[in-house]
Amino acid sequence: MPHAALILTAGLGTRLRPLSFVRAKSAVPVAGEPLVRRIIRYAAGQEVRDLVLNLHYLPETITARVGDGSDLGVRVRYSFESPVLGSAGGPRKALSLLPDADFFIINGDTLTNVDLHALAANHRDTGALVTIAVIPNRWPDRYGGLIVDATGRFHSVVPAGSPVRSYHVVGVQMAHPSAFARLALNQPAESIGSLYRELVKDDLGSVRAFLCGADFLDVGTPADYLEACLRVGKSEGGAPHVGRGSVVDPTARLVDTVVWDDARIGGGATLERCVVADGVQIPAGAAFRNCAIIQRDGDLVVADIK
Length: 306
Hints:
The chain is α/β, with parallel strands linked by helices. The chain has helices at 35-44, 60-66, 86-94, 116-126, 178-181, 191-202, 222-235; strands spanning 4-8, 29-30, 33-34, 50-55, 75-80, 103-107, 110-112, 130-136, 145-148, 154-158, 167-175, 207-211, 216-218, 247-248, 253-255, 258-259, 264-265, 270-276, 281-282, 287-296, 299-304.
């Protein structure tokens, strides 16, 4: 089985704002551990230990938490992008750091437990250039999906809200470098909505879906992120939701709330279903509910979690 993967961590995280003003999306903590480190541990647990991370937005918030990967038992190298190159342009630029053979592509903003061995076997057996792990799209009002035939061949995509039966991408693929080599270097390009459509025009069956029963947690929006933290924390026996260096006054009340690093929660404060970012100082007696809170130039910036 291939042992190399590209983890896509270059995105701007616009849907996660204002939290992504503080950290890149892949660097946000999930039940006490940065998301990107959880993804790396997932890959390493399935013998994938040669990793490339693409970087663009707030790269230091990722590199400071990952380094060279040695403490996680992996090798990590970085592919820097300027401008951000997208879901196909990013892999194209990273090819020089990846083997000239099949490799995994793993989204840096989702948590899943796709069986990488099974995905690799399916990819090998079909001879596809790209194999995308999918599950039935149970949220068609929220997510678009792939149109796939009975043999697993990818045909097209449908937007959110479509009544057509589709399949949801869970954030793990396997690809051969030749799928991306046709693209111009350092030019933004997208994969599923553009490149993969062109590939199947030339050869129907070159892009395929691997239908699986994997779990999937999105951290795309503040609401998704909070839900993912609470679910993972519960599954791990109440993993901590208060980060390093943060101080919570004993008289403060926190309910279903995530506090990042170096924050201060004043006496008598009440936080319900909130996310408090790095360095935020919540005044004594303050009350917030369903909020994402960051601090800029000494002022609190508060956004509703919908």
